[in-house]
Amino acid sequence: SWQVATEKVAGKLSSTLSWVKNTVSHTVSQMASQVASPSASLHTTSSSTTLSTPVLSPSSPTQLSPDDLELLAKLEEQNRLLETDSKSLRSVNGSRRNSGSSLVSSSSASSNLSHLEEDSWILWGRIVNEWEDVRKKKEKQVKELVRKGIPHHFRAIVWQLLCSAQSMPIKDQYSELLKMTSPCEKLIRRDIARTYPEHDFFKEKDSLGQEVLFNVMKAYSLVDREVGYCQGSAFIVGLLLMQMPEEEAFCVFVKLMQDYRLRELFKPSMAELGLCMYQFECMIQEHLPELYVHFQSQSFHTSMYASSWFLTIFLTTFPLPIATRVFDIFMSEGLEIVFRVGLAVLQMNQAELLQLDMEGMLQHFQKVIPHQFDSGPDKLIQASYQVKYNAKKMKKLEKEYTTIKTKEMEEQVEIKRLRTENRLLKQRIETLEKESASLADRLIQHKCSSQYSEDFVLQLEKELVQARLSEAESHCALKEMQDKVLEMEKRNSSLPDEENIARLQEELIAVKLREAEALMGLKELRQQVKDLEEHWQRHLARTTGRWKDPPRKNTVNELQDELMTVRLREAEAQAELKETKQRMMEMETQNQINSNHLRRAEQEVTNLQGKVQYLSAQNKGLLAQLNEAKRRQAEIECKSKEEVMAVRLREADRIAAVAELQQHIAELEIQ
Q: Which residue has the higher pLDDT, 449 or 382?
């Protein structure tokens, strides 16, 4: 297998490197004659230092078996694309930075470089062979080595060892998964052409790179149907395929999704991405308060520039050699490096960002920041580890975010509950109205039956009328407020946008000016055509009688012909110049129209944000009105209950008084 063969080769490296050191000068001198460019020299140097097949000739004192030679050829083919970039050839201490030119120019520099690379290869070969013991006993030292950079030829095996993906049962299912059909195939095919479009391995349509990338993404979409396929994950898989075959890349990607929080990031809800944005924003607020305030004032949300950092681990932000170094550390330490590098980038660019508006900051993130570290990633890595990262505080922020999201869910449930209660309250109001109507009927009956309680019944009727009036007034006030809000919204929507009208007028004036310039140019061209036609007629008139003229006159005529030819050429040149100017004016007009469209779109986005804030404030006001209506309804219920109880008590008192009077009358009658 790939792993066993790699370990076998690593065991033979120590014996083979001594021979390479003695023969490298002779090999370089042979190859230097074929070098036509620095890139070719660099490739030659890479071939000599990576023990590729041409170096291990049959006359070599250290012989390898045909299987080993075949394996080394495969290794060289897998790593060929990245080796053409000088930045990807840096060793642990940056010793490969100028390896191509130094090997060709100086044999002593060649021996020093080989010595450093030999030490690096022996060290990493020992780590790979004794991985279990090294990981347990020297985990800190391994982390430090990874931060300095994994040698390119060891990346494949070291990445698999770091994420424990070298012996996964799912690897045996890979070929079966490729035979199945995934519902995400169309989406994957659509996005493959956008993944590393300038990289040689992926840029050709239906190339080997695009095919293996499609295979891995399709296989994972079948394994994890909840996540399926998410745009952005293809960049991570593409980087893995640059280092290892597709089966190993599939296993490593599965491990990354399961153990490195990537699965939560790529879920349809993207809840983990929201958590990362919240944590990162809190870090900015703590470490860069001025920049945080500036971002808030410009409505420059964290997700506008940092979401791709977390979803692609900077693979779409930095050039590949720098992003690969960051990915080395991500494989060892997880998402912590993304927070560190992100904050380090903001610290380095704080002064420039504070001077820019939202559009300027977006341009800065897209065009300036990606090329700030072209000289090498060491400065960025050092700055990122000077950032204070508190794991306990991040856990606390995670709890806070969970609490906030839970409260938001509870508020939504509460709104639904309030709406239900409002509907029930309306039903109860109707019931109370019916009860009060029946109570009024009873009072009328009492009024007819007993003249004694007439004043009392009138008083109760007045109180009931007042209660109904106050209830009706509250309903009317609520309805008036809602009508006013709707009317104001209609007014705002019907009013024309003065800024848009002014911009459209400016565009119209500019177009008219350019049209006038074009008409002037057309008039000038027409005048020149007329002049040329007159000259041509004169020329024809002269040439008809030229054979009769003396030689001197013929010479003058020839000069006039040449002058006519020059004028014709001049007219053609002026016509071409006018046409070019006209095209330039059309392009400028189109450019101005596009910029105005963009400005209007930004204005619409700002208006929509304001409308969202206004609607949220309106929602809060309506909730407050609902609570107030609920409170008033409760008061009305209490009052109505108290009134009913008072009526019953008074009625009982009246009956008791009547009974006493009747008894008194009976006693008087007896007397």
A: 382
Q: Is the pLDDT of residue 256 over 90?
A: yes
Amino acid in the structure at residue 343 = L
**CA–CA separation, 203 vs 246, rounded Å?**
18
Residue 360 counted as domain residue:
yes
Q: Which residues contact 280 (CB under 8 A, 6 or more apart)?
A: 302, 306, 339, 342, 343
In a domain, 214, yes or no: yes
Torsion of CA 253, 256, 261, 267, to 10 degrees: 10
- Indicate whether 41 belongs to any domain: no
Rounded Cα–Cα distance for residues 576 and 190 (Å): 43
Give the pLDDT band (50/70/90) at residue 215.
very high
For the packed helices 107-129 and 2-32, what is the interaxial angle rounded to 10 degrees?
180
Tokens encoding 547: 């054979």
Among the residue ranges 229-238, 396-405, 580-589, the one predicted with the least confidence is 580-589
Residue 332 near residue 146, CB atoms below 8 Å: yes
Contact (Cβ atoms closer than 8 angstroms) between residue 464 and residue 485: no
Asked whether residue 361 is domain-assigned, the answer is: yes
Q: What are phi and psi of 427, to 5 degrees?
A: -65, -40
Q: Which of 423, 286, 399 is nearest to 343 (CA)?
A: 286
Once rounded to an integer, what is the mean pLDDT over residues 612-636?
89
Angle at 335 between CA 332 and CA 338, to 5 degrees: 105
The pLDDT tens digits for 58-68 are 333 334 455 55
Residues 6 or more apart in contact with residue 276 via CB below 8 angstroms: 265, 310, 335, 338, 339
Range of the domain at 303: 127-407
pLDDT digits 0-9 by tens, 123-134: 898 999 999 888
Domain count, the chain: 1
Which is nearest to 117 in space by CA: 199, 182, 20, 205?
20
DSSP 378-437: HHHHHHHTTS---HHHHHHHHHHHHHHHHHHHHHHHHHHHHHHHHHHHHHHHHHHHHHHH
Q: Cα 427 to chain center, whole Å?
A: 49
What is the C-alpha separation between 46 and 84, in angstroms, rounded? Answer: 9
Asked if 36 contacts 71 with a C-beta cutoff of 8 angstroms, the reply is no
What's the pTM value of the predicted model, to 2 decimals?
0.50
**Amino acid letter, 589:** T
**Predicted pLDDT at 546:** 53
Taking the C-alpha atoms of residue 91 and residue 140, their distance in angstroms, rounded to an integer, is 20
Helices 233-243 & 155-162, crossing angle to 10 degrees? 130
End-to-end CA, the chain: 128
Q: What is the CATH number of the domain that holds 233?
A: 1.10.472.80
* Euclidean distance between CA atoms 518 and 625, whole angstroms: 63
Q: Which of 89, 112, 252 is CA-nearest to residue 170? A: 252
How many other CB atoms are found less than 10 A from the CB of residue 103?
A: 28
Joined tokens for residue 49: 């230092």
Residue 422 token pair:
């409002």
